[in-house]
Amino acid sequence: MSPVLLYLSFLLFALGVLVVLTKRNAIVVLLGIELILSAAILNAVHFNQQFPDRMDGQLFALFIIVIAVCEAVVGMSIIIRVYRYYHTAVPDQINELNER
Amino acid sequence: MEVSGLILLLPLAASILMVTFPVARFQFGGLALSVTLAAFLLTWVVDPGSLQANWLQSGNFNLPLLFSIHDLRLIRLIIGISGLVQFYSLFYLSSSANHRSYFSLLCFFTFAMLGLATSTHLLVTFVFWELVGYTSYRLIGFDTTTSSTSAALKALLINKVGDVCFLIGILMLASTGLLSTSNLAPGSAGTLPLLLIFVGVVAKSAQAPLFPWLTAAMAGPTPVSALLHSATMVAAGVLVLLRLVPLLNDTVSTVISFTGGVTLLVGGLLAIFSYDIKRILAYSTISQLGLMVLAIGAGAHASGYLHLQTHAIFKAGLFLCAGVFIHHGVISGHANPNDIRNFSNPNGWLKWSWVILSGSLVGLPLTAGFISKEAILHDVMTFSASLSLFVWVSIPLTALYVGRVSYFLVTKKTESYPLHPLLLPALLLSLVSVMWFVAAITTEAPTAWVSIVISQTLVIAGLFAGFRLARISFAEKSWHTNLGLDGLYDKKMPQLATAWGRAGIAVDRQIIDRLVHAWAYITVLFAHLTSWFDRAIVDLTLVGGSAWVVRFTGQLVRVPMSGKVQGYLLWALFSLFLFLVLWLLL
């Protein structure tokens, strides 16, 4: 068990969070989420190696990939709807949750 | 209501009827006369008794209308003289005068005077007292000339001084519960309320020094003078005084008798110096009222009351005689018909009734005046020898002015005009005067022969001196009219009132206004203080402070609520991290 994959996964998660929190474009934010998801997949696959007789982690990884695809589609469409509605896809400018 | 109440209500009803319904000219007098006659006849029918009705009732306070119809002789006198005066007025008034209001007022006066004479509750008495005063005011100013209007106003104002004192006195008596005059306990009231009531009596009964209104009141028609200002109305004060006799103490009695005595002499003295018949008779009335008041003050109230009645008869008669002289003078076209030097005698009957009535005034035998005057003289001498001095002096004084006037009236050549209806009331009154003497002398023969002889001697001497005096003519000096008191009341009083008003203005400007300004200054100062407190403490510190705290907290709380999705995410992650650390540590 080398921790390299774990480091990689941590790196991916950290990068994903950084992208999600900092990027000004919603599409890139979506990309960040994909990065976080990939970190999760990596973790799932990696921890599954401790139990060679079981396939749960691998299978879960597949499901996550599928879900990530779906999520990307839904996310993209949401972004498009948001862009059409607000004429922008910059999260900073969409601050309707703020009262002001 | 008993039948006797009708005596009171009939004249009132007639008066209201005349004011309310316009009828033809002569019927006013006819209506008044028939109603008065009916009331007069009623007095012979009814039994003496009391009338009682509730006027006001509120809680414990009860104001009853109490009337005592006991003294039928006084009631008959009032109604009888009213009736004679109404009859006289029918022929005396010019046809252009307002008969409607005149006879209405005469009837109303009869009602008010009867109410005053019979009511036994002082507050009710006061109501009638004021009604009588009002009627007098209206009748004095009946001619609506400038002089009679100002005379009416003068009578009203001088009487008002007395009325106010009278009312205050009544209210002070009311606090001791002595308003009902039918059961007065002796000596239970203080001195002050009685003195105040006596001021009312002084004004109403024209005592010194409040008598000038009575001579001014002669501006009214002569029958009115006969009725109100000699026979009945001015007797109101004496009547009220008689009611209060049980309450009188020594101080009040002394004040009363000295006021009466001074009035008696002043009235008699002033009567000597006048040429105006009505003015002479007015002074004579003042003098005789003073005699009554003196008698009451000295304790001879029974004889004072008797003199009130006999005086009513002969003074009304004298005025009605004078009215005939004046009427005759007016017809003959004299410039000054009131002046006794201008008089001419229209009829022999008039001369005789004048002789009888003026004999009654001085107290000669065969007349009613003899009875009452000798009674007063005798009683006052019994009670107080010093006070009888007033009476002794007044006897020749009265005879003096009566003799002087009678010289002008009796020595004139008698023109033989036919018997005029105007003469009848005076003849009737002189007849009553003689009958009174006969009735009284047969029931009780006089005993005080010494005082009678002396007083009769004085009367005869006075009369002869009066005849002599009449030939001396003298110019009128200012003090001959009302002792110059007119100047006091007409000039000094207004000046005093003006000065009082000025002083009031000065006090108002100097003290009240300054106080008001100071108070305003203090108020503004206080308002500034309050305003500062409001702004600095309440607004800035309390309200502003709490607003600042809230805003600060709000801003603090608002920081995470930026509305930015990524911000929320950051906070979510931060919290997650925090929980993770906590979970690991615990």
Please provide a written account of the structure.
- The complex is a heterodimer of chains A (100) and B (586).
- Chain A is an all-alpha fold and 100 residues long.
- The model of chain A has no long low-confidence stretch (mean pLDDT 87).
- The radius of gyration of chain A is 17 Å and the shape is elongated.
- Chain A is 73% helix and 0% strand.
- Chain B has 586 residues and is mainly alpha-helical.
- Helices cover 74% and strands 3% of the residues of chain B.
- Chain B contains 20 helices and 2 strands.
- Chain B has helices at 4-20, 25-45, 72-92, 99-118, 122-140, 146-175, 191-204, 212-216, 222-231, 235-243, 250-272, 277-298, 301-332, 348-362, 368-383, 388-410, 423-443, 449-471, 485-558, 565-585, and strands at 49-58, 61-69.
- In chain B, helix 3 packs antiparallel against helix 4, helix 4 packs antiparallel against helix 5 and helix 14 runs parallel beside helix 15 (368-383).
- The radius of gyration of chain B is 38 Å and the shape is elongated.
- The N and C termini of chain B lie far apart (111 Å).
- Chain A binds chain B through residues 17, 20-22, 29, 91-92, 94-100, and chain B through 561-566, 568-570, 573.
